[in-house]
Amino acid sequence: MGDPAKADAALLPCISWSHDPSYLRLQGYMETNCSYIAVQENLMDDAHFNYLHCPPHIDWAEQPALWSLPVDIEVKDRTVTTVMKLLDVTLAPVEAIAMGLQVGQRVNRLGRCMSAAPGCYFAEWSFENPTPAPGAQSSFSLRGLHGMTPISADRCHWWWAYIQDYGHRAPRAFQAGWEAILQQDKDILEAIQMTADRAPAMEQPPHVLVGADRALVGLRRIFKQMLEVEDT
Asked: What sequence ranges are listed for the domain Vanillate O-demethylase oxygenase-like C-terminal catalytic (predicted)?
């Protein structure tokens, strides 16, 4: 689907970091039975980590603190960017061990994520240890990119890659970890698509938007504007 002649690589942001040899690179592909736009919206939903990927990705005990933190959102012609700051939160055990830190270590996390319509998503997370040992590494980086393209209205290709400057001694564990996390996303997205497909035309399941969906609303407006341009 789509016209390859209309693809413009100049619209993509610089991602030279994706080939940095000093980083551990993890990557994969899934054919997913849902709209490619649904994948974009899932990735932009920062709140979904709090319930879909727990445990051990985020400690349930810290859920109230995570929900209350504000997210800055910037919407441009073709992109939606979110910036989230999580101060004094506990690292997942696998991350702490890979970073050479004690399990239970508390850090500051800064996340900057961007959806570039129609089918790209980029994430940058930094972790700061406020109490490093003398001479020890105090900051760590995790970056990711996703590319989605439709096969049909309710099926899509989904490529993904993450790179990080830690965990080099356990690449298989981190590869398996990301595959498991993204499989959870795939499972829930396909279940939602199946529910919508099976509902009679006059009895579609309710669709509710809440405050946490501000970035998704911005992304939908961009898609709507792009479709209107295509139709003129």
From this structure: 33-228
232 residues of the chain, pLDDT tens digit each? 567 777 777 766 677 777 888 899 999 999 999 999 999 999 988 777 666 776 554 454 455 555 555 689 999 988 999 998 888 888 877 788 888 888 889 999 999 999 998 899 999 999 999 999 898 899 999 999 999 999 999 999 999 999 999 989 889 989 998 999 899 999 999 999 998 888 776 666 677 766 667 888 889 899 899 888 888 7
Cα–Cα distance measured from residue 172 to residue 151, given in angstroms and rounded to the nearest whole number? 30
Q: Which residues, listed in sequence order, are joined to residue 82 by a DSSP beta bridge? A: 73, 113
Return the CATH number at 30: 3.90.380.10
Please name the residues in contact with 231: beta carbons below 8 A apart, sequence gap of 6 or more: none
Our count of domains for the chain comes to 1
Contact in structure between 164 and 24 (CB atoms under 8 Å): yes
Which residue reads 């919508």 in tokens? 196
